[in-house]
Amino acid sequence: MEAALQVFTEMEHLNVVSWTSVVTGLSEHGFAKRALQMFQEMDDAGIKPNDIIDIAILSACSYVGMIDEGWKHFYSMYKEHRISSRIWHHSCMVDFLGRPGFFEEAKQLIVSMSSTAKVLVWCTLLGDWYIFLSNLCAFIVPWVNGVAEIRKSMKKRKLGEEAAASV
Fold it and tell me: Which regions does the record annotate with the repeat PPR (predicted)?
């Protein structure tokens, strides 16, 4: 990534394509805050963003859990830059809401969409549900297995549970 940033800083004429490339690269390599900083520098330089760089910014926010920043950017796409959100923007939004478990908010966003191609976005949410449930099972199964082992050990040592009594 350092080499790409070096090439970028040495370029004589920066345009939306060069900015989009560097912001996307930073986003995809886990440098979300740097990607957001570069986006701000692009904006300060007066370069109008395109809908591709908006996906990179929304993805960057998703990867690091910057939900408020993601919403802010999503709303500013049209308000400040006149870029209409498309299906892939909604998919990014649903993903960054679904990853940390904001499923109701993600569902509301999908329902509010005017697009007829909602299937892709529903699939994104289902994927996040699957990851959430997998993580939950990964947490619960060892705990349940641990309890079973403790009970087996207690039985082996002839340690039983005391019966409850009321007074």
Answer: 15-49
